[in-house]
Structure formats: C-alpha cells, structure tokens
Amino acid sequence: MPRKGMRSIFFSSSKPSSPPRSHASSSTPGSTPPLTPRHTFSVTMMEANIEYAESLITMWDVDGPTYNKLLPLFTSDRKEAKEFLKSVKDLQAAMNFFVSQNSSAEKMVRAQKLMQTAMKRLEREFYQILTANRNFQLDAESVLSRSSRASTRSSASDDDASDDEIQIAGNSVSELVMADLRSIAECMISAGYGKECVKIYKIIRKSIVDESLYHLGVEKLSSSQVQKMDWDLVEAKIRSWLKATTFAVKTLFYGERILCDDVFSVSEKIAESSFTEISKDAALMLFDFPDLVAKGKKTPEKMFKVLDLYDTVSELWPEIESIFSFESTSAVRSAAANSLVKLGDAIRLLLSDFETAIQKDTSKTPVPGGGVHPLTRYVMNYIVFLSDYTGVLSDIVADWPLSVHSPLPESYFSSPIADESSAAAISERFAWIVLVLLCKLDSKVDLYKDVSLSYLFLANNLNYVVSKVRNSKLKLLLGDDWLAKHEMKVSQYAANYERMGWSKAMASLPTDPTISISIDTVEEHFKSFNSAFEEAYRRQVSWIITDPKLRDEVKVSLAKKLVPAYRAFYEKYQGMFRRKVGVDSAVRFAPDDLDNYLSDLFYGAGVAGSSTSFSSAASARDRAVVGDSNLGLKLMKLLPRNSFSENIRELVLGIDMMNTESAVGDTFPDEVIIQSDMLHA
C-alpha cells in the first residue's frame, strides 16, 4: 500500500463515519447494516485507495491540462507505470467493495469516472505500444529464451517478479513489449474493458500479418488466374511462395500465436479468438495456392516444383498443427492437409503420365553412330532429379501399389529393399520406370539396318543408364545387384557388336596362322582380310561410343581379338609379297596399322560410307622399309652427292619426319610410296 494511502487512513476521510449501532437496535428491511469498527476501517481504506488512484490517474489523464497527457506512460517512467496499474487494481477493488456495501451513488460515480479515465489512458498506451512495434516478431529462439527466464521468475513473489521482469526486460525489447502489453490487457480485461483492448489488438496485429504476407509476395489468386499464367510465371510464384511459407509458419504465425497466448494469458478464450481473427484469413490464402497449382495442367516439367510444394507443406505440418490447434482454426489445418492430398494426387498423375510418355515415344530417327538416344538422356536425368525427393515420394507412393502387366519376371523391377516399407515402394517404382525406358530402347533397334550398330546402340544407352544410376542416389534405391546385372548386359551388348561387326575380318584369317599353306591361299587370305577390314572400318568410322571407359574397353577387346592373329599371319607370310609400281600389294596393313585404325574408331567424327584412303598403311612392307628412320639414314650415306641424290635425301628425311610426327590415321601420298619402291629397287 502506498504511503499516501496509509496517511489518509489516519488523518482524513471523505465522510465522518456513522456511530456504531447496537445489534439490539431496530432496523427497517433493506436499510444499510450497522457498521462495526472493522467495517469502518475497511471503508476508510477503500476511500484512501480511491483518493490515491485519483491523484495518479488525473495526472496522466489524456484529456487533462498537464503535459503528461502527451507523454507515453510506459516508456517515460516505468515505475510510475507500475504504480498506475496498481492504483487501477486498487480502484477496482474499492468499487467492488462499495457495491457489496450498498454505498452511496456519489462514491460509485466518482470511482467510475476515474476508471473510465484510467481505461482511456491504458487504451492509448496499448495502441501506442502496438503501433510502435509493428515490426515486432517472435522466433523460436527468442520464445525459448523468454520461456526459460519466465520459469525462473515463476517461484518469486508478485512484487519481486515485477521488479525482475523490468530488469530483464531492459535487456530484451521483445520481453519488454510483451510484458507491457500483457499487463495492460490484464488490467483492462479485469476492469471490464476487454472488448476495447481486444479490438485495438486485432486491428493492428491483423494489418501487420496481412502486410507481411503482401511483402513476401503472397497474394489472393483464383483458379482461372493460375490456369492462364505462363508456367515461367507460375514457377516464379512457387519459388516466392516456398520462401514466404517457411517464414510465415516458423516466424509470423508462430510469433502471433505466442504473442496472443502471452498478452491474453488471463483469458484463453480471448487469446483464441484474437489469434483466429488475426491469422485465419491470411493462412487460408497461403495454403490455397498449392491447391491451385495442383489443379493446373499436368506436364512432366512441373513435377519438381510440385514436389517442392509438397515437401514444404509436409515438413511444416507439425508446426501447422501446433500453431493452429484451436477448434476455431481447424479450417487452416484442413486447408494444409487438403493441399498435401491434392499435391500427392498431382504427383502420382505426373508419374503415370511420365511412364506413359516413355512408352508412347514415337521418334523414328535413328541416333547417328548408335549414340545415346535423347530419350535416354531425358528420362535418366529426370529420374536422377526425382531421386533427390526420395523421402517425399516414399510418402506419396506408399499407398499406391505398382500394378503392371509385364511378360518380364518381377525380378527385373523388384525392389532390393526386402520389407514392405515406403522406401521399398519407391525403389520398385524407380526400377519400373528404368525398365520401361529399356524396353522402349529395345524397340528402337529396328531403326538400324546394321545389326552390329544396333548392338552398339544398346551398349551405349544401357551404359549411360548404368552410369547415371551408379553416380546418383538411384544406386541406393536400385541396389548393387541391379547394377551388376545391367553392367553384365552392357558387356554382352558390346561383345555382340564385336562379333557382328568384325566377324568377316576375323574369319578371313586362317584358324591357325602359323601353319604352312600355299602362296595363293595366303594371298587370298590377305586380300580377304584387306577387303573385310576396310569395309568394317569405313562403315564404322562414324560410329560412336560416348563413354570414354567403355570406348577404351571395346577398342582393347577388338585389338586383342584381331591384331595378334593378324600379326602371326603377317610375320610368317608378308615377305612373300612386294609392291610393284602400278600394282596393288596383297599385304596392305602392318599389325601396328590395325591398332592405329582401331584407335580412330568410336569418336563419331568420320562420315559413314566415305572413301577413306588406306594408302598410309597400304603397304606393310613399305612402312617396314621406309618407316625405319635408322634405315633411312643408312640409305642417305650410300647415295652419291648429286642433284638427284639430294632430292632423294630430302625425300627420305621427309618420310622419316612424317613417320616420327604423324598422328593416327595420317596418310602418305601415292607418289611417295612409288618413289620409295624405286629407291628400294
């Protein structure tokens, strides 16, 4: 009790107290009961409370003559603000006392006018604090900090807690604001002025929420508006919505819920109604947008943004449930849950349409050189991106069993995950999409007239698929067994290509190249090999193997099958044949030439069917003689130094340099070969 109030008790009173009446005295019904000494003391105390409240409230009267009417009470003098609130509570207690004692109307009118003056001041303070802190928002960290400090103060007495609150609030603007708003709200509600307090709070905080969403790029859209937008614009709005929603749920709505619960902690009903009116419309507008996107036209490129929407709402769902837990905000929970359902349906439909699009691909143009088909690149890149959403997709396809009618055994697309979990479901779904792609690629081999090229096409495309799986999250979903099985199929396709593409050249050599045969037979073997090798090379020079590792493996494999057998045959019989001017030699390739030509393959740089010159390797004998730099130097020493011999000397040096510096596939002019024959002769 303030000292001024205590002095009033002993030195003054508003009315002289009536003498006590005897209990035996007669009284009429309805008359004021006799006052005992105790009652007299209580009356005196209540009157003193009113007097003290009057002195303080009048000083801060917003319509009064003093300068204080222009000053904010709670930011000017916090101790005075504390006394002001206490005087209002004491005034309320005095009013309740006089009502119970059937006191004179004069006292009640006086007290009521003072209460109205006090409420007008508190109403202004409440408004000023709210408007001065429009940017005030709470996040999880500040709320946790506030809660921990509040629990520390909860065991203290009321006066100590108030002092501690002011001290702590000095270090935290958010706590200071919340403490002031809470104190004013409690005072006004207890005095019967809660309606005025709540009205101000709702108007200001609702405008803040609506303005925040507007600045975040959230706007009210209709279904027809979204349908008419270009996808680029919709995509931009989705990106904006994703950022806005995370902030809105974790900071904006979360902070408003905490603020309402704290400011109106005296009444849970008022806190609920305030939060509902402030946040409900904004939240419904926010969660309406995913539904509008889900209703739009379904095309494969929209999949990932739809997944982003689903992922964001799904991740925020626990917070949404907690923040909008009131019955009056159940519509917000329903809207968020409904958006998840609609987005999930849209994603399932997009997946089905994606599979159907693969199956219905009608491209009839064969990929040049048997390279990787655009469909393969598109599908594999698409599902690699999809694999980044495994967690989301697992939830979506968990209750969407894979029902397919395929002649292939289930092991071709079954999940490596043995249990019945959602992870197994999405794993099976990915395996099935890959299988659909591979089946479509199998149907495209008919576009190639060359069987060996069709096998190269299959090897290239399956190897691309395997590489994408191995280097992405798909490896975890499809498993090591799937990888091993399909790597083996790549090797089989490559082996079939080698067999079909080079069988004629391999068959042109004798089974045992070291056995003795007639010179006519040897010549026939050489000519058959020359023809078969040149035909295979010219046909395949434009073919391609896109993967460097597979390319090298195929080259090495071809060289191992072709070169050793030819080398053995060549070394045994090449000496029987010498090139003559104007006559084709039976021996056109040295073993090293084969390696050089094979190294040219699978880059896709040549032109199929071109008349590529084989003169650089046409004479194994010439390469053996002229290509030997040591032999060239010996020949120069033997030549006489005259004009003709100088020309020959330069020629030999040129041949040596060409032999030393030439890249794979370089050719010698025909005149060089002819002159080297003359030199040899």
Automatic annotation (TrEMBL):
GO terms for molecular function: phosphatidylinositol-4,5-bisphosphate binding. Keywords: Exocytosis, Protein transport, Transport. Residues 240-600 form the Exocyst complex subunit Exo70 C-terminal domain. One of its GO terms (cellular component) is exocyst. GO terms for biological process: exocytosis; protein transport. Residues 1-37 are annotated as: Disordered. Coiled coil: none annotated. It comes from the Eukaryota. It holds the Pfam family Exo70_C. Residues 12-30 have a biased composition (Low complexity). Component of the exocyst complex. PANTHER family: EXOCYST COMPLEX PROTEIN EXO70, EXOCYST SUBUNIT EXO70 FAMILY PROTEIN. Belongs to the EXO70 family. This is Exocyst subunit Exo70 family protein. It comes from Escallonia herrerae. The lineage of its organism: Eukaryota, Viridiplantae, Streptophyta, Embryophyta, Tracheophyta.
